[in-house]
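The data layer described in this paper is built around a simple, fixed record for each protein. Such a record has a labelled line for the sequence and another for the backbone structure tokens. For reference, a complete record is included directly beneath this paragraph.
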Amino acid sequence: MRRFVAAGFGAGLIPNRLYGSHNGAGTFGAAVAVIIGLWLIPSPWWVDTLVALAAIGVSLWAAAPFATGGQDPAWVAIDEIAGTMVAMIGLTGWPWLLAVAVARLLDIFKVAPGIRQAENLHGAAGVTFDDVIAGLYGLAAGYALLAIT
């Protein structure tokens, strides 16, 4: 059960089934978050926040046994769900879409300050918090777009 949750409720296992590699598993996990986020759009920001905090907690719990020796297994996708949920807090429309795109790209390329450092944290914290920080950057981008439109 924990492996299923860590795999983003199975989403992180899809690439291996499709093309024999775990490459792209995080994007499948982010897609799960997008589906949840679409469902949450009518909700107030504080509901989004509670869901994001719950996703972070679930990520820390589920990833823990698989994050040994500084590893972040590619099939673990619950962390991408958590980070993407953070990016979408209180947003709709184009700002929402920008936030998701920025969070995903920064998680993939790890070019913004703090993301690589978070990835180097021990255990499940390293697995989860690089995505959460990428999500915070996405959230900031989404709110910046909201502010100028």
Observations:
- Residues 91 and 120 are 30 Å apart (CA to CA).
- The chain has one domain: 2-148.
